[in-house]
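sorry to bug you again but im stuck and you know this stuff better than me. theres a chain ive been looking at and ive put its sequence and its fold in token form underneath. id like you to explain what the token line says about the fold, in plain words if possible. anything you notice is useful, everything is just below.
___
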Amino acid sequence: MGASTHYQAQLEHPELGLLTWDIWEYPVGVENSTARNVNGHEVIHDLRYGLEHVPDIEDADDWINPYIPNDPYEIFKESITEANVLVNTSGSAEGTGLINRMVFSHYITAMEAFLCDALLNAVSDDTTARGRLLKELKGLREQKFTLNEIAADPDIVISSLQNHLRSIVYHNLVVVGDLFKIALDIDIFQFIDDKDFLFKAVLLRHDCVRRNGKDKDGNILDVFTKDFVIETGQAIRFFIASLALAMDQRVFRGITEKLEKLEAELSLSGS
């Protein structure tokens, strides 16, 4: 789902001190959250501010038909490898370093991107998986289309499902686990050695991208040591590698079953 972008406006007032307004964009084009810090003063009338993203006309088709990579796992591996190099060469032993927090956040983002793209790919290629989701997901199964809409877009069912899947927050592993179980009959949690560790890492990422490495009370977090960041990356890499293998094996079993069925049909017709 891409990187999270943090925008901040600052005003150094001679009497009020430093005042800040923040916006977090995640995924691209979506205003995820906002915050302001008025240095303990009372806000009488706030500024009007928000995210406005207007794509270039040349890129309009990319927004209408977002690209789904053919091999999300290869992209994940390349991304994780680059992040590993960065933390090993430029990371610090201290738990408050910027590079450490950046790499830590990227590990979670890379995991989200794989989960989203891998599920989109699987659903696009598998009519059974699509049928399961359309049957089970509330909000999708109730959708109705007119004949004109279907005539204008024969793939309207697939595109509607894809749009719904893109709207999911993929660091919510409980929701994502349900989607994989419904669509592919795969329990993603069997591939996570320590669920509590990974769930906590997701929450800590929020502290990195939304509060610049501070908790909700404004305390600076010092947990992002080099060793902790590397451990998090290894846990995520093992999880995604195991899940990707299970998805490949599922596809292979499906092909094998189709070949066996075809062979049986040919054998019967030959007799």
In short: The CA atoms of residues 22 and 258 lie 54 Å apart. The chain is about 55% helix and 10% strand. The two ends are 53 Å apart (CA to CA).
